[in-house]
Amino acid sequence: MKNHEILAHTHHRPFPLPQGPWLMKQTWNDLLFAHWPVSSSCLKSLIPPGLELQLWEGTPWISVSPFFMDPLRLRGLPRLPFVHRFLELNIRTYVIKNGKAGIFFLNLDASSRLAVLSARSLAHLPYRYANMSCKTDGEKFTFSSKRPIPGHGQAEFSGKYHSKGSDCFHAAPGSLVHWLTERYCLYASDSEGRLYTGDIHHLPWPLQEAKLELDVNSATRVFGLVHDPDPSLLTFTKRLEVLFWPVTRI
User: Fold this and answer.
1) What is the DSSP string of 96-124?
2) Under a CB-based contact definition with an 8 Å cutoff, are residues 147 and 155 in contact?
3) Signal sequence: where (predicted)?
4) Which among 51, 147, 212, 215 counts the fewest CB atoms within 10 Å?
């Protein structure tokens, strides 16, 4: 889709588009959203001062998303060699600051060392390199991410997932799915506790019902998070084009 077409659709946003030009465009492919409620006690310590943990009916949630990035490009430039396509697994939760709701990433694993280095240095996001693979059998995906943690085994997420049927929907405003997915701001912090924020924009999430056969998930356990083995909510998105504005210090 043309960028101006994406920018022309803003009625679904909770706040206006940011001032200034966007910087980067990412396309997320074959993305699974796996959502769990967790206890506030095990999550609050992971949220930096200055951000408030956001709750749905009194409970915080985390989301785990495996997907395939292709392409990634900076505005006005062609695809960047060695960094325009890679696998990613992110773990996020939901926060708010000064009335602006957004996402806080606990971790972002990626199969590209260059992407990890760039994101950590330029956007202050907690990217880490992991050994990752994704095998496709028609519309079924077998995804694996393994990242060694010295002295603590490894953070691993592996399983098989696919969409259930071909019907696509947009989350209804006021629903839990909408609260979890329709987010247009991210927050980050650095080692000294300084806060950063960045805006994103895309069309409303094109969602499908999904099925997941989860083999291993120690990726959330390494953060001390306690939750049920199986996700409480699953969706699948075939493709989403996303525009990013620069990440700036608050």
Assistant:
1) EETTEEEEEEEEEEES-HHHHHHHHHHS-
2) yes
3) none
4) 215
Cβ–Cβ under 8 Å, residues 201 and 235: no
The answer to whether the CB of 195 falls within 8 A of the CB of 189 is: yes
pLDDT in tens for each of the 250 residues of the chain?
999 999 999 999 999 999 999 999 999 999 999 999 999 999 999 999 999 999 999 999 999 999 999 999 999 887 777 788 999 999 999 999 999 999 999 999 999 999 999 899 989 999 999 999 999 999 999 999 999 998 778 999 999 999 998 899 999 999 999 999 999 999 999 999 999 999 999 999 999 999 999 999 999 999 999 999 999 999 999 999 999 999 999 9
Give every CB contact of residue 236 below 8 A, 6+ residues apart in sequence.
30, 31, 32, 33, 161, 162, 163, 164, 207, 208, 209, 210
| Domain spans, the chain | 3-12+23-249
Distance CA 213, CA 157 (A): 11
pTM for the whole structure = 0.95
Count CB atoms within 10 A of the CB of residue 173: 10
Is the preceding omega at residue 71 within 30 degrees of 0, hence cis?
yes
Q: 243 by DSSP, 3-state: which?
A: strand
Q: Topology of domain 3-12+23-249, per CATH?
A: Acetoacetate decarboxylase-like (2.40.400)
- CA–CA separation, 199 and 103 (whole Å): 10
Which of these, 139, 35, 31, 125, lies nearest to 87 by C-alpha position? 31
Do the beta carbons of residue 127 and residue 92 sit within 8 Å?
A: no
CB 186 within 8 A of CB 200: yes
